[in-house]
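In response to reviewer comment 3 from the previous cycle, which asked for concrete evidence that the modeling workflow produces usable outputs, we include below a single protein chain processed end to end. The sequence was submitted unchanged, and the resulting structure tokens are shown without manual editing.
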Amino acid sequence: MSTSRSLRSAQRIISLPITRNGRHPTSNPASGNNKILTYYHFQLHLPHRKAKRNEEDGNMSRWNPRFWTQWAQTKAADTWAGFGKAPEGSWKLRVFRGGEAMVDRIDFEELALKGVDPSLGPTILHPDISRKGEKERERQDSKILLFYPPSIHSGDESLSYLRSLVQSRSPSHRKGFWIWMFAAPFTAPFMLIPIIPNLPFFFCVWRSWSHYRAYRASEYLAALIRNGHIVPEPSQLLDTIYKDFAPKSLSEPSSAEPETTSSSPNPSRSSSEMEPLLKEDTPRLLLTRDAVPAIVSAFDLKQSASADIYRALEQAKNRLSRSGS
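The workflow returned the following structure tokens.
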């Protein structure tokens, strides 16, 4: 597979390490003790399955439960978008801005996972998400490249970090689904207010649905990893972006560090100077916000991906600050 084709593959996962917080270089990433915080951009839609799904949706009967599920999602999205277009000072616009602020506080890992639709991705031999009688072509299309920057970690580590993420998130999202589902009926008294919609109820339903989708995605990704469908792929282009947009503490030697001379046994840093710096047990960010446009352009991502990456960077920065306090 050519580089240009693989970078724009319909099935790919882009691994973006954001922080390194005191991880020892010899620690085992599978043990869960690593401190690398990573944002993953998932793109797992098979074109022919997506086209088939669109055709099925167009011919879907009103008696099909999926019809009403899709209708509810579309209706909710349109209503929420309408709130954002409300006049300045209106309660709808205030609710919209407050809701967007709440979304920014939701873990970026959950928001990334909930965007994965197992029904549009490769079919695997798993009792919950596989369908019998799949065509051989789909089996051949099941390879998913996991792009990662090789100067930050190895291919085995990149896969171990993803495995650790889905294993740790799955039970929490399953629990979150039931908590918010049970909380929804307690918001019934708010229906007595005739003017304002029952926002607490809709919020509980939305949080429950979000957790459910993230849970299903985590289970799906864990099955893909178990069956060997996800293959790490080093990306020199991504590596270049990390070196070009690294924080100054990574890309430049400290002013307090003594200069090396020609007689010194340690030569000056070369183009691989990132590697020893990244191995230090010091909490640090690995990427700046200036790198986001370059990542979006290099991997031909939708512009909506920018907001997701910015959110992840901001949350990672806040978590790093709390861990250091």
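The chain has 13 helices and five strands. We consider this sufficient to address the reviewer's concern, and the full set will be provided in the supplementary archive.
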